[in-house]
């Protein structure tokens, strides 16, 4: 007996296709269209082919912005992932303190990005900011407006303060999902605290940590509002990341063709690095599946 086939079921997913087309595909195709053309206004476009891509990939300005972006993402990941796991390990497991700690950890995530930048802009000022005034009083000569090292340190500390909570909450969820029987077996075997973490907690948290690493990498690689509000990309171009440079190119210089080409390359870099992260972190599981197949 043949099963009935009803094409009307496609109408159920049609709204999803329309939504994706308007929110993702059409804007992306528009950017691709701009990236292969040049315009001098009056809605007149001239075919440029791959000129903007060739020019961009040979640009020292793009290389420097990409290098700063990669360095920033690497630093915040190296700090936030271990620190978030450590905080999750120290969070309470039962009682009223659980709800309190969860609320406190979620608070930084609720603050809008431009407000975070404004908070740290005032916080780091040497004349009225608590951080800047205290460091200068201790003799550190701190000034994030003129000193490159101070500007980088302030942006990194700001991002760690803002987003480590996300890693901690994800790691905490992973820890809470571990059955109590594992800990009971470890106590019977006399396992040390380090052995419990290395052999039980860390492997069980692996999936949530993969999500945490991917989320934090993508977000840190696309960061714009907080450093722009805090330093505006300065001093000089020392904190001009790819996102800030892209906005300067598109809206400051109104070079739509090069900005569109940069947007496409920027998107492909994020996509490629995310794929590399995911492949490396899930390599063990893929090997096990191939071994059992």
Automatic annotation (TrEMBL):
GO terms for biological process: transmembrane transport. Coiled coil: none annotated. This is ABC transporter permease. The chain crosses the membrane at residues 12-36, 70-89, 95-116, 151-175, 208-225, 259-280. Its main location: membrane. Keywords: Membrane, Transmembrane, Transmembrane helix, Transport. CDD domains: TM_PBP2. Pfam families: BPD_transp_1 (PF00528). Belongs to the binding-protein-dependent transport system permease family. PROSITE patterns: ABC_TM1. It is found in: Cell membrane. It is a multi-pass membrane protein. One of its GO terms (cellular component) is plasma membrane. Residues 66-277 form the ABC transmembrane type-1 domain.
